[in-house]
Amino acid sequence: MNNKTKATWMLAAALSLMLTACGNERAAEPPAPTESPKPAETPKPAESKKSSASTGDSSVVPAPPATSVNSESAKDAKAEKDTKEAKETKETKAAKDKPNPSEPADKQSQPSGATGAVNDNGKTGASGPKNPAAAVTGGKTKEPSAAGTGDRKALSWYYMKKPKGQVPNFPAETKSYTKDMKALWVGTGKKVYLTIDTGGPLGDIDTLVKSLKDNKVKANFFIAGYNVKKNPDFIRTLVADGHLIANHTMTHTDMNTQTDEQVRKEIEDYEKLYKDVTGKDIQPYFRFPYGRYNMHLLKMVSDMGYTSVFWSTAMRDWEPRKNGAEDPYNDIMNNLHDGNIILMHQGSPENIQALDKIVKAVKKAGYEFALLSDIEPPK
Ligand SMILES: [Zn+2]
């Protein structure tokens, strides 16, 4: 990169670190998994940052960290793949042992990808990912390269937060989405779409279900298939309570690291599993694990009948929150806007502790909780 670019990038990185330090949120899903290949991600954040810098926004919400994160889940998933059954137990156990909060964070051990600098990783050591090397090392040659090129260039979702009450800015690539790439990241009107991501630990299910029920709130769940297998009764309860459940892949792996055939299988296996467990067809919404995708996959998923759902609020909820349940509450209330699609990880204890209070406050602010199916489908 030339000096100017470099300078811009560094500025962005510095800005983001600052933001991180201040506890600003990021918007992305946690880092990705890893094991595999790719890390890649990279520099994208720069872009975002740049924009934000130019915009004066102080809050950029960078892309997801790259990697690591979910390792737990990714790992689990992988294990799953390898050993189907035995693993279940193991997974559970692992999850238990590690009190990690969110999806991502879990296992530190996991390598991760490093992504970009910017993201957050760094600091959170705990969560930490960061090992770019890992990625590299991975050498496993999987076909798709993590970074990708052309319409397979790896992208990570992020948004740039604006002053309270205003709809954030979104990545420039959204302007390149075509009609055959159905996607949603924000709705309109005084509605809020709570999307709960269960790519990691299931956490305190009872409190979660009760908080929604007590407040008559319907939410949208993106639950990885391995978690559906782990607790099918939970999924049946959600269906009975009127929540929307959508496809989040079987293993919660970064789809950029998979072949088309593998991606298709992740999605179709989920459809079958969901049907087996609930007797119903899965809702036609999909979320890319970690918000990591590419234009080619966006189109492919759309061709399979799905609308990809990103978000306009996310939190660093895959790691312990400094101020406990106050953090998710403030993160959400300080970025509340029309059509807000909120990403909340179920595995974060603080999220669940704060849920009742959040839901009440959002309603008090004049918003109604709605299902993704209430959003007019993209044309
Ligand atoms: Zn997820």
UniProtKB/TrEMBL annotation:
This is Peptidoglycan-N-acetylmuramic acid deacetylase. Keywords: Signal. It comes from Paenibacillus tianmuensis. GO terms for biological process: carbohydrate metabolic process. GO terms for cellular component: membrane. Residues 30-42 have a biased composition (Pro residues). Coiled coil: none annotated. It comes from the Bacteria. Residues 1-27 form the signal peptide. Residues 24-151 are annotated as: Disordered. Residues 73-106 have a biased composition (Basic and acidic residues). SUPFAM superfamilies: Glycoside hydrolase/deacetylase. One of its GO terms (molecular function) is hydrolase activity, acting on carbon-nitrogen (but not peptide) bonds.
